[in-house]
Amino acid sequence: IECWFTGKTWEGFVLEGLNMYVSRLKPMMPVVLKEFRDVGSGPDAPEKEAAQIIKALSPNDILILLDEKGTLFGSREFAHHLDKVLFHCLQ
User: Fold this and answer.
1) Separation of CA 83 from chain center
2) Do the Cβ atoms of 41 and 6 come closer than 8 Å?
3) N or C: where does the chain have the smaller number of CB atoms within 10 Å of the terminal CB?
4) Can you say how many angstroms the Cα of residue 15 is from the centroid of all Cα atoms in its chain?
5) Percent of the chain having pLDDT more than 70?
6) Exposure string (b/e) for 4-15, b if CB count within 10 Å is 16 or more?
7) Is 6 within 8 Å of 53 (Cβ atoms)?
8) pLDDT band, very low/low/confident/very high, at 58 (cuts 50, 70, 90)
9) Distance between CA atoms of 22 and 32, rounded to whole angstroms?
10) Which residues pair with 4 in a beta bridge?
């Protein structure tokens, strides 16, 4: 699993939470964190961020986007969702 981030994600409390979850996941599977450079906050920032991500994707990648305005999952619901996605990919 690769977790990609855009913008200013590496504030202390965010990094602490990420490290906690990565340490829990690593015994089960490899996890890589990747931060894309900050593109600023102008009106074209979302398009610039999207272009960085699309350029970094490989044809076999599966992209799951997380957004504070998206569907809210609890921890167990999100784990179940990931399980379904990963199971589907391995078939």
Assistant:
1) 15
2) no
3) C
4) 13
5) 93
6) bebeeeeeeeee
7) yes
8) very high
9) 8
10) 34
The dihedral through the CA atoms of 19, 20, 23, 25 has a sign that is: negative
Q: Encoding tokens for residue 32?
A: 């890589």
CA 18/CA 25 separation, integer angstroms: 11
CA 71 to chain centre: 15
**How far, in Å, CA of 6 to CA of 39, rounded?**
8
Whole-structure pTM value: 0.70
The single-letter code of the amino acid at 6 is T
Length of the chain, please? Answer: 91
Give per-residue pLDDT as tens, 8-46: 666 778 888 888 888 988 888 888 888 888 888 889 988
